[in-house]
Amino acid sequence: MPRPVSAADLQAALARRHRPAKPSNHTSPCHQRVLAIDPALRRTGWAVIEGGASNPRALAWGTITNAAKLSTAACLVEIHRQLVEIIGNHRPEVCAIESTIFVQSMRTAITLGMSSGACLIAAGSAGLPIFQYAPREIKQAVVGRGGAQKSQVAFMMRSLLGLRETPAADAADAMAVAITHLQSHNAEAIGTSPRRRL
Amino acid sequence: MPRPVSAADLQAALARRHRPAKPSNHTSPCHQRVLAIDPALRRTGWAVIEGGASNPRALAWGTITNAAKLSTAACLVEIHRQLVEIIGNHRPEVCAIESTIFVQSMRTAITLGMSSGACLIAAGSAGLPIFQYAPREIKQAVVGRGGAQKSQVAFMMRSLLGLRETPAADAADAMAVAITHLQSHNAEAIGTSPRRRL
Questions:
Q1: For A132-178, how does the pLDDT look when each residue is reduced to its tens digit (9 = 90+)?
Q2: What was the pLDDT predicted at A6?
Q3: Looking at per-residue confidence, does B72 or B100 come out higher?
Q4: Domain range for residue A158?
């Protein structure tokens, strides 16, 4: 059982991040506009984050919410439709998506696969390169501990991105996917991380 | 372990089907044009079948094949794109899709969910009502035994639909989904079967 992430851990993680950033350069290969997605049938979090590993900026974020009475197919159509609109509005260069390794049952795995599929079709049809990251890897990247809770991730996203309010949990998770990608992409650009392109 | 389906079983199933059909009526609620799909990432079988339970006719069928080198996202985009095209060309009124209950692993379940999701988005975006049927239920409906093999399903489809050649396995599976739906829909129209709408 891993030790829970404490307030001190979060402060330490923030302090590591608040080191003065190098001057940003929009033509740098490390600078990207990322559409990040945390897919789920009823609540898909999304965020458009621009910048590099040291200077990320949140341009837009939200949650695609589907009512419990909606059929599976109707939910998928809505996820796909809204993401196509988001891509059209914000013109991201790349898509980063949370992958899933462990779920409770085959039925949940199939449903989650469907939701992820809706995101991949929207991003893939727009020609975006797609990268995936596992939940533990995302928490490790943004909080410094793989066992971090959703509220801790949201707290970190508010601090890191300088948001006025703590973002909703699903959107915060998507922001964390974007931050993970920007760090990973930065690492890749300097040759220390392999590509994990979907 | 169920007894394998024998040639005699197939002949008996065919004989049951070859009873003279009642005169067909295109305005009957039992008469439909069905897009049926057997989803899979690399080989998605599809068929457009028109008619009722007793007089089905194959209008078009095929397999959406994705090369092994294609990424998951590219496969999903292709499945979605081709199905949108098929729906535009053949104007089905309803979609019937093979569901999955048991798969080997969580990874397979997620991949299959993604493939099914691509089909559901194409059909759902076109406003088609969608019905799903389990593999065992489909085999039971078309061969008379839940444990039938793919080659036996293809043989039955060739006979039942009066095709010149035995269809490829994936397209034959999709045809069988359509036949199952038409039988079920017929049963539903006469009040003996519940709706299993997705």
A1: 999 999 999 998 887 788 889 999 999 999 999 999 999 999 999 99
A2: 65
A3: B72
A4: 32-189
Residue B144 domain-assigned (yes or no) = yes
What pLDDT, on a 0 to 100 scale, did the predictor assign at position B28? 52
A72-98 burial code (b ≥16 CB/10 A, e <16): bbbbbbbbbbbbeebbeeeebebbbbb
CA distances from B163 to B35, B59, B155, B157 (A): 18, 11, 10, 8
- Which pLDDT tens digit goes with each residue over B121-171? 999 999 999 999 999 999 999 988 877 888 899 999 999 999 999 999 999
Q: What is the CATH number of the domain that holds A114?
A: 3.30.420.10
Is residue B146 one of the residues assigned to a domain? yes
Cα(A44)–Cα(A63) distance, integer angstroms: 5
- Token digits of residue A195: 């590509």
Closest by CA position to B34, among listed B76, B100, B88, B87 = B87
Of A72, A74, A120, the CB nearest to B76: A120
Q: Is the pTM of this model over 0.95?
A: no
Which residues of A fall within a CB distance of 8 Å from B195? none
CB contacts, 8 Å: A106 with chain B = 101-103, 106, 109
Residue B20 resides in a domain: no
When divided into structural domains, chain A yields a total of 1
**Structural domain contains residue B169:** yes
Cα–Cα distance measured from residue A183 to residue A17, given in angstroms and rounded to the nearest whole number = 11
Contact B39, B116 (CB under 8 A): yes
